[in-house]
Amino acid sequence: MLEDRTTAASAPTAWPAAYPQGYAVVDVETTGLARDDRIISAAVYRLDARGEVEDHWYTLVNPERDPGPVWIHGLTSDVLEAAPLFPDIAEEFSARLDGRVLVAHNAVFDWQMIAREYARAEREAPVRQRLCTIALSKELGLPLPNHKLESLAAHFGVVQQRAHHALDDARVLAEAFRPSLRAAAADSVRLPLQECRPLTEWRDTAAPRIGQQAGGSGGYGSYRPTSWRPSRKRPMCPHPNPGRYEDGKRLKQGMRVAFSGDTSIERDLLEDRAVEAGLHVSTSLSRLTSLLVTNDPDSNTSKVVKARQFGTPVVDEAAFGQLLRDVEPASEP
After folding, report:
1. Dihedral sign, CA of 33, 34, 35, 40?
2. Is 86 exposed, middle or buried (0-12, 13-18, 19+ CB in 10 A)?
3. 73 an active-site residue?
4. Which of 8, 82, 170, 186 is the most buried (most CB within 10 A)?
C-alpha cells in the first residue's frame, strides 16, 4: 500500500482528542438513485479510532422489486430472490454501525438509502454522524482530477478489484480513508462530520416486485419518487428581503432560501427550521434568491443552473445548519 502519497505516511503519535473513536466504512448497491429505490447489497468495514480494520461484513438484500441496472452491479433477479429482506438483516447491520461514524464516498446518498430502508422496516439506524470522503479529500486539498472513488484510490495506490461490488468498494474506501485520516490528524484538520437524522415514517406505494420489470426504459431513471409528502403552503415571511447572503457573514431574517436535491434531514423539517429562524423558503430560484442550499453543487438541476447564471451563493446542508444557529434579526422598519 503506497500510503506515503499523503503528508503522513504513518499514524501521528499525537492524535486529536476530538476525533471519533470508531468508523463504519459503508457501501451500498441499489436498484437506482431515486427516493423509492432499494438496497440490494451492503458492506461494512469497521475501523478503530486510527483507521485500522477490525472486521468486515457483506450481505445481499432482496429488494422485492426489479434489480435495476444489472449491467452496473451485476446482481440479477435470480441471485437476489433467495437473499434476505432488509428487516432480516437490519439488526446485524445496526450492530455494525452502532456507536460509529458512518464513512462513505458521497455519504449523503448512502445514508439516505440506509435511513429509508430502516424507516420501511419501522426501525431506526443507530447513526448520528457521517463523514464523506469527498468532503475530506477537499479539506486535505488532495490533487485529484475528479471526485470519483477510483481517483481517490489511485492517489493512495489502492487497487480496485471489482468496481460496483459493495464489499470491494468498501474495502477500497477503507484503505483510502486510513491515510486520509492520518493526514488529517497530523495537521489537526477538523473532520467534516455531518449530522444524521433518521427518518421516522415511510409509506411505500405499489412497486414492481423482484423479477418484474418497471415501466420506462429501465436503469437508474426508471423509478419515480411517489412516497414523499406534497409541499405545504407556508405563511408569508413577515420580514423584507435584505438581499443576498455574503460568505463569512450571518444569515439575516427575511432572506430568501431555496433548496435543491436530497438532504439528510427531511426536507420539511429543514424548511421548518428555516421558517422558524425568520427566513423565507422559496420553491423556485430567481435573481431575488439570497441563498441556495444543495449537497450537490455540481449537478445540473434547474435551480443549480440558475444559481450559476445569477451568481446566487450556494452552501451545503451542513453549512446551512451552522448558519441557522445564529440568524441576524431583521432591520427595524
Report:
1. negative
2. buried
3. no
4. 170
Q: Residue 204: what pLDDT?
A: 57
Of the listed 56, 147, 164, 239, which one is catalytic? 164
pTM (two decimals): 0.64
In the three-class reduction of DSSP (H, G, I as helix; E, B as strand; rest coil), residue 245 is classed as: coil
Ramachandran angles phi, psi of 140, nearest 5°: -80, -10
Query: Where does 121-251 have alpha helices with state H?
Result: 133-140, 149-155, 166-186
- b vs e for 93-106, b when ≥16 Cβ sit within 10 Å of the residue's Cβ? beebbeebbbbbbb
Q: What is the percentage of the chain residues whose pLDDT exceeds 90?
A: 58
Mean pLDDT score, 176-204: 87
Q: 260-269, 296-305, 309-318: which has the minimum mean pLDDT?
A: 260-269
Kindly provide the residue ranges of all beta strands, DSSP E only, lying in the chain, ordered along the sequence: 22-30, 39-48, 53-60, 101-104, 129-132, 193-195, 256-260, 280-282, 291-294, 314-315
Its sign, for the CA torsion 263, 269, 271, 275, is: negative
Q: What's the rounded Cα separation, in Å, for the pair 96 and 75? A: 23
pLDDT at 68 over 90: no
Closest among 80, 156, 92 to 118, alpha carbons compared: 92
Contact criterion met (CB below 8 Å) for 11 and 197: no
pLDDT band at 10 (very low <50, low <70, confident <90, very high): low
Quote the DSSP letter at residue 70: H
| Closest CA relative to residue 195, chosen from 317, 97, 104, 277 | 317
* Banded model confidence at residue 233, pLDDT cuts 50, 70, 90: low
300 Cβ contact list (under 8 Å, min separation 6): none
Q: Which grid coordinates belong to 76?
A: 440479477
Whether residue 215 is predicted with pLDDT greater than 70 in this model: the reply is no
